[in-house]
Design brief:
The chain has a domain at 27-166. Helix content is 13%, strand content 57%. The protein has a 19-stranded mixed β-sheet that branches. A 4-stranded mixed β-sheet has the order 21-22-20-23, with no helix packed on it. By secondary structure, the protein is mainly beta. It is elongated and about 80 Å long.
């Protein structure tokens, strides 16, 4: 009996000592945040460029003066507080002028693997970015070296949110490798690029060039001379566009466009679907390899239109009373049509010639 009494207290004592050690083994990530700021003056018509690896870039108008102001918020995460501080303090805003342009980029710590911090201010971006980097690793070149962004163990957890205020009438370029780009209320020539993530541009005046790979892009309230959109697999949404010329080039992403008023439209896709609503160009050429094409127009201004798909379906909805002449051919498929007051010159399984009224658009 005495032996049993000795063993029981010893067992309880060991349990008390071991449990705190096990709890202490769960290392809580440490967070460090820092702010950076730069400003400089520019002349009207100058070219300025901004580049960031992981996080976001937001471009906003500076109503008065000729000063460009850059504010960056850095979030770093590590197992130890001292390491998180070191990573954040290695982030810098670097200026390098070349080719007549003023370029600012965010210098990240010297590492090959990066990931989004799981906590802190930057988590507002990681809510949508986290699923992306969990599914795949994004490879890119940044600051002269190849880097990868994903969810790999041991990856450096640093992100930077950049906010830029610019005067009117500049040539502006913003390149975000992984993350989001936002540009609102700016007047001038603007070029926005995102490799993976999201792009938002609204109420812009001038020329706009949008380039994405897997990122989605949304452009609304644009009024300018030229809108150019190029995308790989990302989804594109265009709303309330007024431009002299508009060009869309999509490899396989879905393109949705609504309320498009342009003099000249050129749109092409590989395997992606294109949907146009309230489309009113003077001239348009829309082509697809295997993707489906859908468009609706009142033909208020349209004079010439070519709509073709190698193997995808083409659906065209025309205004009830708009005059037009339409010729449709489908060597490997079928042609179907219906309407009010339509004169049928020819209607066969694979081809059709339809007309309404005199003059109007040639389709």
């Amino acid at each position: 009996m005495s032996v049993r009494r000795a063993v029981w207290p010893l067992f309880v004592l060991l349990s008390i000592l071991v449990l705190p050690t096990a709890s202490a083994g769960k290392v809580k990530a440490q967070l460090f945040e820092a702010d950076l700021e730069e400003s400089f003056t520019v002349a009207k018509g100058s070219s300025v460029e901004f580049e960031n690896l992981l996080g976001s870039i937001e471009v906003m108008p500076q109503a008065k003066g000729n000063e460009v102001r850059i504010r960056a918020h850095v979030v770093a995460e590590a197992a130890e507080a001292v390491e998180a501080r070191r990573l954040a303090q290695e982030v810098r805003l670097v200026r390098s002028d070349a080719g007549g342009a003023v370029k600012w980029s965010v210098a990240f710590p010297d590492a090959r693997l990066f990931r989004m911090p799981k906590t802190g201010v930057a988590s507002v971006y990681s809510k949508w970015l986290a699923p992306l980097v969990k599914r795949k690793t994004v490879s890119t070149r940044y600051d002269g070296r190849a880097v990868e962004i994903g969810n790999a163990r041991g990856a450096t957890a640093v992100s930077v949110t950049v906010k830029v205020e610019i005067p009117m009438d500049l040539h502006v370029s913003a390149v975000q490798h992984v993350g989001t780009v936002q540009c609102n209320g700016v007047r001038g020539d603007v070029a926005l690029s995102v490799k993976q993530g999201e792009l938002h541009a609204g109420r812009l005046f001038g020329d706009l060039h949008v380039t994405t790979e897997g990122a989605s892009a949304r452009v609304w309230g644009f009024n300018g001379s030229f809108l150019n959109v190029e995308t790989g697999s990302g989804e594109i949404e265009l709303t309330e566009i007024r431009s002299e010329k508009m060009r869309i080039d999509s490899a396989r992403g879905l393109v949705r466009a609504d309320k498009i008023d342009t003099t000249e439209l050129e749109a092409s896709t590989g395997s992606g679907k294109m949907i146009f609503e309230r489309l009113e160009p003077e001239a348009m050429v829309i082509r697809s390899d295997t993707g489906d094409l859908e468009l609706a127009t009142e033909l208020k201004r349209t004079r010439d239109a070519t709509i073709s798909s190698t193997s995808g379906n083409v659906t065209v909805r025309l205004g009830t009373f708009a005059p037009f002449r339409l010729e449709a051919n489908s060597p490997d498929g079928a042609v179907k049509g219906s309407g009010v007051n339509v004169e049928v010159d020819q209607f066969e399984k694979n081809s059709a010639k339809l007309a309404r009224g005199s003059g109007g658009a040639n389709l």
